[in-house]
Specification:
602 residues; alpha+beta; Immunoglobulin-like; Rossmann fold; 13 helices; 22% helix; globular
Length: 602
């Protein structure tokens, strides 16, 4: 109790200074950014439509600046506080990523609806799935969008679009930033797109194996082998899909566009709709480019989009011209107003291609109207080694999991004091700085299943770990999640013999429900547990931090508990487990394990 009181007082006192922060979209299209941090000496805001701009402190101590005007859209942004990147502690929307941590600004259109708006139309559901991958040698994950009618018409089967995010993005980005689900909801409601299932793979799966070096650029064949031989069979077994090339599409943004084209072009027996957003692929794919008539006859839609101000434009344009020279037809679209290699482009390209997928007549018309690649000018932006090094500097590993300890690192060469703050500790602990400006601390691992939230306190400012891809989906400030991969309830430690259930997010009711593998609720009445979120939790918290789905998978597979449904929806007659009754996530996990294992004894 002592350490909980200290931690709550400490976090409360440090976060209170930021409680006044907000972003305000003004009528003239400008945006006013406000940030309060009484410990800051200098604050800048970095937003994609305006770059980095200094903020000034007003008489009330609030840092503020007004920028723009900017076109209505969604823009990543963060604050730079004394040289350290900080997410907006008052914004619930964030950009999932392996590295950088940004918040999301949404500028609405005053006159018309935007493709990604959350409109009053039927919304599909989002499934988070885990499956064993032979290619990876471990458990992989993906996100699946199901159209609104999927649960209403059990006899209907659907085409599938495999849509891959970019370098350092997680499988969530096309959902939380690209908003593929809401774009498709709107198009389906207007009759402008076919109902389809969309599968969002994780483009860098080797990163899930902590003992193996990960292939950051994803150019090895692990991803392609996993997609074709592991993920696709899983999807086609667990969902009602139409399994032929005329009903499969593949595409992606940036690295995901490369991966999508490489997989699609080398498997034209599986895909006939190919989309690349701000990308290109190899010109040396075997058996693809030398017989244009055969390749053209097998592709319904070959769609390529890129911004002329994108750093990949030179390479993407060259690839378009290469296809033209080989006699391979493709649709080409260019933008000039979406700030280059950005998710504003990714969303726009998505809204342009979804109406063409699985509509042969519309796709044929687009292909017939295709134009040649733009002529080279000699001044095209190029993807050079220097650009690569700037965008993807050598990573710092944090957390680094050892057998008996965990090491955390944070680079802040200008900071005078950095402390490590965590649920598992009685008080903040000072970190030590090396000659490169990297602060470090090693803490002992005390229990086999040790999970806790943590952050760094940098000269009085709380900062999530920029190297940790696992971010607590909490309201307001979002700490990082430490979850040792050797935990018995971590997906990384589960082998091929553990069947995995599915967590479904119902976007109409804002609830999340875990359903175990292989259960037919029409014939079996499973145990139902209602997981009640805490005050600052979201429907995701019990799964993303609490690991409720991983715990249930492991206990059900070992026979320690019966098949059960876990839901954040209020459920009459269900056993309740309230997050508010347990101060830490470690205690909440133990309570869930106890509840599930007790149920089998009863």
């Amino acid at each position: 109790m002592k350490h909980l009181i200290l931690l709550n007082l400490f976090i409360g006192s440090t976060l209170f200074a930021s409680a006044q922060q907000s972003t305000v979209c003004n009528n003239d299209g400008t945006v006013t950014f406000r940030y309060r941090d009484d410990n800051a000496r200098e604050v800048l805001v970095d937003v994609q439509f305006a770059g980095r701009n200094p903020m000034t402190r007003d008489a009330q101590g609030v840092w503020t600046v007004t920028l723009g005007p900017a076109a209505p859209d969604m823009y990543p942004y963060c604050f730079i506080v004394d040289g350290v990147s900080v997410m907006d502690p008052e914004n619930d929307q964030y950009f999932p990523n392996e590295g950088f941590k940004n918040s999301l600004l949404e500028i609405p259109s005053p006159s018309s609806s935007l493709p990604h708006d959350i409109n009053d139309v039927p919304h599909g559901k989002i499934d988070y799935i885990h499956y064993y991958s032979d290619a990876l040698g471990g458990t992989n994950n993906a996100v699946v969008y199901l159209p609104p009618s999927y649960s209403q018409d059990p006899e209907k089967s659907y085409p599938v679009f495999y849509l891959i995010s970019g370098t350092t993005d997680t499988e969530e980005v096309y959902y939380k930033v690209g908003r593929v689900n809401y774009i498709l909801d709107n198009l389906i409601a207007d009759g402008e797109a076919e109902e389809m299932i969309v599968v969002l793979p994780y483009g860098n799966p080797t990163k899930l194996l902590p003992a193996s070096p990960h292939d950051m650029m994803g150019m090895g064949d692990t991803f392609g082998s996993d997609l074709i031989n592991d993920l696709m069979p899983y999807v086609e077994t667990h969902y009602r899909t139409i399994n032929d090339p005329d009903h499969r599409a593949i595409g992606g943004f940036s690295r995901g566009g490369n991966q999508g084209l490489a997989c699609g072009l080398t498997h034209l027996d599986k895909f006939s709709y190919l989309c690349s957003y701000s990308s290109f692929t190899s010109t040396a794919l075997p058996g693809v480019y030398d017989d244009a008539d055969d390749t053209n006859s097998r592709i319904n839609l070959f769609w390529l989009g890129v911004g002329t101000d994108d750093f990949l434009y030179g390479s993407a344009r060259d690839y378009m011209e290469f296809l033209d020279n080989k006699g391979i037809r493709s649709v080409k679209e260019y933008t000039t107003d979406k700030f280059g290699h950005t998710w504003m482009n990714a969303k726009y390209f998505l809204s342009r291609t979804l109406p063409l997928l699985f509509r042969p007549d519309a796709a044929a018309q687009a292909m017939n109207n295709a134009k040649p690649a733009l002529a080279a000018t000699g001044s095209e932006p190029e993807f050079t080694p220097g650009v690569l090094a700037r965008l993807f500097p050598r990573p710092i590993i944090s957390p680094e999991y050892g057998t008996d300890s965990i090491t955390f690192r944070f680079k802040a060469p200008e900071a005078s004091k950095v402390e490590f703050v965590a649920e598992s500790l009685s008080e903040p602990i000072a970190m030590m700085c090396d000659s490169d400006g990297v602060w470090q601390i090693e803490i002992p691992r005390t229990t086999p299943d040790e999970v806790f939230t943590y952050f760094f306190m940098v000269d009085g400012t709380p900062v999530a770990d920029p190297q940790n891809m696992y971010l607590a989906p909490s309201k307001g400030f979002k700490p990082s999640i430490c979850n040792h991969p050797a935990s018995p309830y971590h997906f990384a430690s589960m082998g091929a013999d553990v069947p995995h259930g599915t967590v479904t997010y119902d976007l109409n009711t804002s609830t999340a429900t875990y359903t175990p593998a292989g259960i037919n609720t029409a014939t079996v009445e499973p145990l139902v547990i209602s997981l009640v979120p805490g005050e600052n939790d979201t429907p995701e918290s019990w799964y993303k931090i609490g690991g409720a789905d991983a715990i249930a998978d492991a206990l059900i597979a070992s026979g320690c508990c019966p098949p059960c449904i876990l839901t954040t929806a209020p459920t009459e007659g269900a056993i309740q487990l309230r997050a508010a009754d347990f101060p830490t996530w470690q205690q909440r996990r133990l309570a869930l394990i106890f509840l599930l294992t007790q149920s089998v004894r009863q």
